Amino acid sequence: MRRAVQTTTVAFEHADRGRPAFVELVLPTATAAGALAFPILDGRVPSLALAAAAWLFVYGSYAIDRISERDPANRAKGTVVAALALIASFAITGVAGGPRSLTLLLVFPLSVALYGTPLVALLVPGSPIRRLKDIPYFKNFYTAFFWGLFGVFAALFSGIDEMGTWLFAFLFCAIHAFVNNTYCDVKDVARDRADGVRTIVGALGIRRTLVLLQLVNLAGALVVVPFVALGIVPRWALGLCLSGIHGFVVLAVAARPGADHERLAQVAMDIGWLAWTPVLIAFRSLG
Q1: How far apart are CA 123 and CA 134, in angstroms?
Q2: Which domain holds residue 259?
Q3: Cα–Cα dist 47/31, whole Å
Q4: Confidence class for position 75, pLDDT limits 50, 70, 90
């Protein structure tokens, strides 16, 4: 059994090395673009500093997770690159975003460490879990929660003080992130089983998981409606309802026999965040 797990892990590492380099840039680029939507909602001019801080932070954070799980051979080099990206993100945030956004951003490295490294076992000797990722069915909710906080970070960075906008940013990002990261588990289901990580996909199976995600995706598209009705975000924010179309199409393609879940999860699903800002700008121009 142990040898089978080792063989599976090696196979995954080789598969990861064979991926195009641009794949690693899709998520940080889409996130940076998506972050700019929240200052627009508040009538502010999007900041290139926010986009840079977001890009560097997401790239650095996921580089750490990737190094620890999939590319141990390049751990030293990768750790330096990831650390430099994170430090640059913190510096930009401290200068351009202010102390509140910097304080919130500093929470994320700890969350990543607790999630993907044996830090829990070090902090709590005798704990039955080594990392939070080992808690059954916890990873998707945990990841979505911190992606929701990332939306709050974008609002704080932009000087937005309205708690209603913070709540909208949190929910909108968290729901979309839940769809994205849960679907990512479809391509990782064999790896997660080999690592002993129990996920929603492992429990429900791929078909039922995709049905669940279509419902969550619909909720993510419609969550803007009550915020518009309450006057928390402007009427033209209803353009964000279109975000559900992208998720629907990707999940529908994923449900087809022989779907390439690797490409759909790492490219097609993540690029949905790219559309938020241009959609808002277009709908704002229409009044």
Answers
A1: 15
A2: 2-14+23-286
A3: 14
A4: low
Residue closest to 157 by CA, chosen among 60, 64, 55: 55
Q: How many CB atoms lie within 10 A of CB 190?
A: 12
Q: How many domains does the chain have?
A: 1
Q: Which of 135, 195, 144 is nearest to 170 (CA)?
A: 144
**pLDDT tens profile 4-47:** 334 333 333 333 444 455 678 899 999 999 999 999 999 999 99
Contact 33, 274 (CB under 8 A): yes
CA distance 110 to 57: 13
> How far is residue 209's CA from residue 68's CA, in Å, rounded to a whole number?
27
Does residue 143 contact residue 114 with C-beta atoms inside 8 Å? Answer: no
For residues 260 and 198, give the distance between their C-alpha atoms in angstroms, rounded to a whole number.
22
The CATH number of the domain holding residue 119 is 1.10.600
CB 59 within 8 A of CB 33: no
CB distance 154 to 35 below 8 Å: yes
Contact 177, 147 (CB under 8 A): yes
